[in-house]
Design goal:
Helix content is about 15%, strand content about 15%. The protein has about 325 residues and is α+β, with helices and mostly antiparallel strands. Strands 3-4-7-14-9 form a 5-stranded antiparallel β-sheet. Strands 12-10-13 form a 3-stranded mixed β-sheet, with no helix packed on it. The chain is globular. Mean pLDDT is about 90; it is low at about 1-25.
């Protein structure tokens, strides 16, 4: 696919690149279920996505530390799958139970009781999204799921064992079929579902409550009181309406880690979604988080919003989780 097409080929059908409407028929994507009962939505490539936002998009700079959103077309020349929902506490808990070292590390340094308190307060249900997870732990979960699916280690995207600062990704990681975090173009393609508007249903936020858990009156500063009518915690996944591709909670609920560094898409010079030439994952390099979260306002719940420039891979946040992805068929010429 070359340039900016007037339509986007998705899952063997065509989604016209226009705002979704109430009467618009939803696409019926290919899907399958993992051994851990995640529903995976399959996108048949090659496809293209117009990433970023125009300067006139409302909410384009939601905070002073927001990442840049340059508008540009990116080709995804492979088929891939992305999970319909965020990974839940129950799903992540099975990984922890099978990995004692990961279980031990899934905690706040110097505060052994804090993780229990955070989970009880902000995501207490088994089918609520896992939170306070580092980028490395999300990647380790992907490796574990690859093993559960019987995929050989030679197809894993991340090195085996405990992941930490300085790990080296394989040069062909997007050609491997192991589970991983979605790339930014994959995430944005799936969120947009064939549209070019701020959200898959249009440019305004008047229908956002049908699809997202978000703060309608977020505090203006850290010390401001929280509006009691706004969400005080993450919701169980899948309670609201899906987007036309079948993704649930793609906006709001919890921020979602992606594969990519923040700095990689700060400029509009990327045309193909391919492996990052920087293969070292370092604590000092921020990775993007997408979609917004329950304590954040509507401006963060847009397809182009990229979180903060300071989203380093190790700090724990009570509103950050992840969804998973994988390559289905390698890159086409």
């Amino acid at each position: 696919m070359r340039g900016i097409a007037t339509a986007v080929i998705v899952l063997g059908s065509v989604l016209t690149a226009q705002p979704a409407t109430r009467d618009r028929a939803e696409a019926q994507p290919d899907r399958y279920q993992t051994t851990q009962r995640q529903t995976m939505i399959v996108v048949r490539g090659p496809v293209s996505v117009i990433m970023g936002s125009p300067p006139t998009e409302r909410g384009r700079q939601p905070a002073s530390d927001s990442s840049a959103e340059p508008q540009h077309t990116v080709n995804i020349r492979r088929s891939f799958a992305i999970s319909a929902t965020e990974i839940t506490n129950a799903q992540f808990g099975r990984f922890l139970a099978a990995n004692p070292e990961a279980q031990r590390r899934y905690n706040y340094d110097g505060a052994p009781e804090r993780m229990t308190e955070v989970l009880q307060r902000f995501s207490p249900d088994a089918d609520s999204p896992v939170i306070a997870v580092t980028w490395y732990e999300a990647a380790m979960y992907c490796n574990w799921l690859s093993a559960q699916e019987g995929l050989p280690a030679a197809q894993w995207v991340y090195p085996a064992g405990t992941l930490r600062d300085g790990i080296h990704l394989p040069a062909d990681y997007l050609q491997r079929v192991g589970y991983r975090l979605p790339t930014e173009p994959e995430w944005e393609f799936a969120a947009r579902a064939g549209t070019t508007t701020a959200r898959f249903f249009g440019d305004t936020d008047d229908r956002l409550g049908d699809y997202a858990w978000f703060a309608r009156h977020p505090p203006r500063s850290r010390n401001d009181p929280v509006d009691p009518t706004d969400p005080q915690r993450a919701a169980r996944v899948g309670l609201l309406k899906p987007n036309p591709l079948g993704l649930l909670d793609v906006y709001g609920n919890v921020w979602e880690w992606t594969q990519d560094r923040v700095s990689r898409f700060q400029t509009a010079d990327v045309t193909d979604d391919r492996e990052d030439p920087v293969l070292i994952v370092a604590d000092k390099d921020a990775r993007t988080r997408r979609g917004g979260a329950f304590p954040y306002g509507a401006d963060f719940a847009r397809s182009a919003a990229r979180g903060t420039v300071n989203s380093l891979p190790t700090p724990r946040r009570d509103n950050v989780g992840f969804r998973i992805a994988k390559t289905i068929a390698p890159t086409t010429p």
